[in-house]
Write a sequence for this structure.
């Protein structure tokens, strides 16, 4: 009996010792990911300010808007959500405001702790994928920090995810890391991933996996014009999803080849 | 006597004759039935003649007034239209109407009895009585058929309850109509309700006080919106009132005696000079007082205040004459008596306070204008108003210097400034220069707008809640950019509907699902292929496209968009029970209406955009049609006045064809430089081509930018 107890104590002590040895390894991987995202990825996440003008039956209204985007090359090309820069007219049609038109002016990009912003122009949009591309009008001579979409990770349900957003102006536009996972994969109307928790809150934010590898982009899916024609409740056809990195890269390549960035 | 019978007794005589005539017939005695009928017919004819005669003395002088107004809100000037009525009362073409008809007006067009439309100018306005005088531009009047008619004023003081009156005007903007009624009350005022011993301030839409000196003529001749400013006429064919308010079968007219006095002063001075001492009064009912005028309030730093008068004091004599206000109806004439004194008059008052009497001497001051002029600083996104001494007093400002910010447009440079401007701020300085008046602002604003090189930022100084602040404003907002283009994607010129299980059972053997072609757009590559309306597309390049539900309408189009532009796709099609392949060449998706380039011209008040494939198809126009599509025109603008309408296509301006938005922009830039008095346009309106002429008015437009 005593020998059995001694053996049990020895085993328990051994397990505890092993646990203590293992824990710092798990903790350091997570903090490494956070560190990579905050130090290496977050600087590429920018704020975009613009004036949105809404026109409807001769009446006009203007509002200052602010959203988030991400630098995708060293020369000031920025990717953001088309909806968040006022480009999603399908959304207007879905809510019965199809006659309203939207236009943008005074587009400015704020990088780092800049509070004034530099002028930029919206070059192209892909409403189907909820993507829009901006270019800083007079890029700085120094290269901008950017997310390299060529280095990307694949997603599957259960993958742990980190998204980067920003606090608002009052709180200094600091980078915020949201954490979650891939809750589901959908294949219709296209291949996208359902984010868990608060990950899908901010459209136009990049999403990373462990190690800070770029994995996708948070977008708002709105119904296509063909779907809207016969839809009874268009709001049932909308939602926030993660567009996989490869799709984002393909769309950017297509836009470049179409001369949209010239 | 005859006149008395005609005016007041005729209807009762008429009734009595009808009734007694009927009784006589029934009794079988007295006048014969035929004789009674003759009397009735004659009386009817006499009444009718009486009405038409008096009508014809004023009706020909009645005008319809069409006004282009400017209002200021949301940081900009907004044009609108208003209509009302008026009466020509001098051979020089002066017209009397309500001030709320002319309020904010920048253009006035009067339609006369002979249908001539004559421009008019504003001679003067008196908001306190809601009266205004216009004058016709006689150079535009065609007198080949004789001079225009002129109406005359009658004595409104001679009116009694029950008198017949006619209301003339343009109800609901319908031209020239007459209604008949009687006087219901000759001294109507609008009291404040139980327990209120004073008359509450009435206000016009602009916030300006009105009705201080008016006891209205209440009548039941039906009046509606549009009758405002039109005459109330007695059976002598004279103006006895100017219709001002109405509703629930009641009408209220400003008495002609007051209107005639005000009109004379407006003609002489362009305004109505009035005296003021700075008190309000109330009735002595339920106060225990037997006589006197009870002072209800005293304005700070007014002549009454400086003479140490206080609320609760009782004025028993004014210039040696005993005065008493027992009833509300006595207040307007008392206030008018003071107001009618020459400015600077010495007013001797005997005043009682706490049982002790004293003599007070007050020198009257000019009655202050309530509200200052207002203007829009459109580029900055604010509207501002001159501060009058009264406004300064009411807003508790230290003085009347500076201009009051009355509205700020959302998203404008004024709102974006940090700190942004708000309603109620008092602008004190621009770019280091002190601003005292609206004129100062307009001079500075105009200089900045006209400068070739505008400063990046301007320093503004303003007061808010007693604190002096500064801010920086961008003097000119950027114009909206042309919208970015959608990435073109592979597109086939057809529309489809999903064929789900239920439909499939009727259209095929029930096992086939896909997308039924509902339209093939003419002029597209799809139209040159073998695809037909009614075909069911089952697969694209061998991959099935089966809708899961009726909501899955876009699946086939999405499948096509994944392919490349200019590539050839093979559709598996079911037609008449047979399946076969159809090759189609995919083209780039056409321009969407949301991405069409737009142009907004503030001079003409015209918004246009590029024509798109879908516009041409929706309207069944040829795809080769060139032009720009009108999205809208501003109310009261040159374009609207010229007859330009939404959804029209501008094909030509002058002799120049408008093939594109670039051509349109070039043309409008040239017009802005040349400033022609008018331009012509050819527009497509549905299936009709129309010729339009747009008149311009350049100096007015330029002053606002």
């Amino acid at each position: 009996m005593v020998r059995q107890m001694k053996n049990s104590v020895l085993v328990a002590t051994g397990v505890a010792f092993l646990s203590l040895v293992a824990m710092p390894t798990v903790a350091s991987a997570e903090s490494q990911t956070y560190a990579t995202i905050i130090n290496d990825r977050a600087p590429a996440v920018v704020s975009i300010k613009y004036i949105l003008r809404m026109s409807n039956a001769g009446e006009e209204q203007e509002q200052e808007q602010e959203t988030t985007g991400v630098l995708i090359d060293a020369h000031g090309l920025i990717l953001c959500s088309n909806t968040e820069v006022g480009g999603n007219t399908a959304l207007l049609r879905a809510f019965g405001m199809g006659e309203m038109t939207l236009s943008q002016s005074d587009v400015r990009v704020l990088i780092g702790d800049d509070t004034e912003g530099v002028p930029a122009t919206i070059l192209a949009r892909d409403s189907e994928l909820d993507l829009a591309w901006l270019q800083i009008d007079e890029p700085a001579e120094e290269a901008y920090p950017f997310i390299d979409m060529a280095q990307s990770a694949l997603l599957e349900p259960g993958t742990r995810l980190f998204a980067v957003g920003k606090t608002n102006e009052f709180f200094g536009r600091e980078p915020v890391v949201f954490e979650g996972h891939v809750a589901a994969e959908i294949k219709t109307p296209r291949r996208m991933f359902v984010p868990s928790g608060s990950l899908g809150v901010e459209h136009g934010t990049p999403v990373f996996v462990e190690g800070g590898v770029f994995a996708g982009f948070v977008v708002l899916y709105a119904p296509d014009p063909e779907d809207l024609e016969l839809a009874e409740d268009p709001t049932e056809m909308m939602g926030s999803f993660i567009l996989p990195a490869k799709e984002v890269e393909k769309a950017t390549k297509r836009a470049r080849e179409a001369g949209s960035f010239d | 006597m005859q006149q008395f019978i005609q005016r007041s007794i005729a209807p009762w005589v008429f009734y009595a004759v009808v009734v007694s005539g009927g009784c006589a017939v029934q009794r079988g005695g007295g006048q014969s039935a035929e004789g009674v009928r003759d009397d009735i017919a004659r009386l009817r004819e006499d009444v009718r003649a009486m009405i038409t005669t008096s009508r014809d003395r004023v009706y020909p002088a009645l005008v319809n007034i069409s006004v282009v107004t400017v209002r200021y809100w949301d940081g900009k000037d907004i044009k609108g239209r208003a209509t009302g009525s008026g009466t020509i009362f001098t051979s020089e073409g002066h017209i009397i109407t309500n001030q709320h008809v002319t309020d904010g007006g920048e253009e006035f067009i009067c339609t006369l009895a002979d249908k001539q439309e004559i421009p008019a100018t504003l001679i003067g306005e008196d908001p306190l009585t809601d009266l205004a005088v216009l004058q016709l531009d006689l150079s535009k009047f065609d007198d080949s058929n004789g001079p225009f008619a002129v109406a005359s004023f009658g004595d409104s003081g001679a009116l009694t309850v029950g008198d017949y009156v006619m209301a003339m005007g343009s109800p609901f903007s319908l031209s020239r109509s007459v209604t008949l009624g009687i006087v219901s009350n000759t001294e109507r005022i609008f009291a404040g309700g139980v327990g209120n011993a004073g008359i509450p301030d009435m206000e016009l839409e602009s916030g300006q006080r009105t009705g201080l000196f008016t006891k209205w003529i209440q009548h039941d001749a039906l009046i509606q919106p549009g009758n405002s400013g039109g005459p109330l006429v007695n059976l002598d064919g004279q103006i006895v009132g100017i219709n001002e308010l109405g509703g629930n079968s009641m009408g209220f007219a400003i008495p002609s005696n007051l209107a005639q006095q005000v009109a004379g002063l407006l003609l002489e001075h362009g305004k109505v000079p009035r005296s003021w001492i700075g008190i309000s009064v109330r009735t002595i009912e339920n106060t225990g007082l037997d006589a006197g005028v009870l002072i209800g309030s005293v304005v700070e730093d007014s002549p009454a205040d400086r003479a140490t008068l206080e609320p609760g004091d009782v004025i028993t004599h004014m210039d040696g004459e005993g005065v008493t206000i027992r009833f509300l109806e006595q207040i307007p004439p008392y206030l008018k008596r003071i107001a009618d004194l020459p400015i600077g008059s010495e007013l001797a008052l005997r005043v009682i306070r706490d049982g002790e009497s004293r003599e007070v001497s007050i020198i009257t001051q000019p009655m202050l204008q309530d509200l200052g002029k207002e203007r829009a600083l459109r580029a900055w996104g604010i509207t501002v108003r001159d501060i009058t001494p009264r406004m300064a007093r009411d807003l508790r400002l230290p003085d009347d210097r500076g201009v009051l910010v009355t509205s700020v447009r959302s998203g404008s440079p004024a709102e974006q400034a940090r700190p942004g401007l708000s309603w109620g701020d008092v602008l004190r300085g621009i770019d280091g220069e002190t601003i005292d008046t609206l004129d100062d602002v307009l001079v500075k604003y105009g200089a900045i707008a006209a400068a070739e090189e505008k400063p990046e930022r301007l320093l503004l100084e303003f007061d808010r809640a007693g604190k002096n602040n500064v801010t920086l404003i961008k003097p000119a907002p950027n114009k909206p950019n042309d919208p970015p283009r959608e990435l073109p994607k592979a597109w086939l010129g057809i529309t489809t509907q999903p064929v789900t299980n239920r439909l499939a059972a009727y259209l095929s053997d029930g096992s086939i699902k896909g997308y039924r072609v509902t339209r093939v757009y003419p002029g597209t590559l799809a139209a040159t292929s073998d695809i037909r309306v009614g075909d069911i597309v089952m697969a694209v390049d061998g991959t099935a496209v089966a809708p899961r539900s009726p909501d899955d309408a876009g699946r086939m189009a999405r499948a096509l968009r994944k392919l490349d532009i200019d590539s050839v796709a093979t559709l598996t099609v079911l037609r008449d029970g047979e399946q076969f392949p159809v090759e189609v060449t995919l083209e780039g998706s056409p321009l969407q209406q949301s991405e069409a380039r737009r142009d907004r011209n503030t001079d003409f008040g015209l918004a246009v955009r590029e024509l798109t494939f879908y516009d041409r198809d929706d309207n069944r126009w040829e795809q080769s049609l060139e032009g720009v599509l009108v999205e809208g025109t501003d109310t009261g603008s040159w374009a609207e006045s010229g007859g330009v309408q939404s959804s029209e296509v501008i094909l030509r301006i002058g002799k120049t064809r408008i093939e594109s938005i670039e051509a349109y922009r070039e043309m409008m830039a040239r017009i802005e430089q040349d400033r022609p008095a008018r331009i012509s346009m050819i527009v497509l309106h549905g299936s009709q081509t129309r010729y339009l002429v747009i008149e311009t008015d350049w100096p007015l437009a330029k002053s606002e930018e």
